[in-house]
Design goal:
There is one protein chain. The chain is mostly helical. The chain is built from three helices and two strands; from the N terminus they run αββαα. The protein has a two-stranded antiparallel sheet. It is flat.
């Protein structure tokens, strides 16, 4: 039986090799001096989600639909949410 030998040597990481932080990160960072908060953080470095597209971005909603409706659209494969959206859009357009 073979024995796994564990590599106990740690990789050296030189703190001087760390990448520079962009100015934006420093502008939004929390500042504390001696444990006292001088300026709270003003956001995050990463923006979550997809950015809005166009002048009228879509609105995210939660919608409960009957199982048979969802099954009908999923049966056609990927893009089923878009197809539901298109059917609803046609209904709204016809109603005008």
């Amino acid at each position: 039986m073979s024995v796994n030998e564990r590599n106990s040597k740690a990789n050296w990481v030189d703190p001087d090799d760390a990448p520079e932080w962009p100015a934006e990160a420093w502008e939004r960072a929390e500042i504390a001096v001696g444990g006292k908060l001088v300026r709270p953080a003003s956001g995050t470095l990463a923006r979550r989600g997809r950015p809005p597209v166009g002048d009228q971005p879509k609105q995210q909603v939660t919608l409960r639909l009957p199982r048979e409706v969802v099954a009908h659209f999923k049966k056609a494969g990927a893009g089923w949410q878009t197809r539901i959206s298109e059917v609803l859009q046609r209904h709204v357009t016809k109603g005008r």
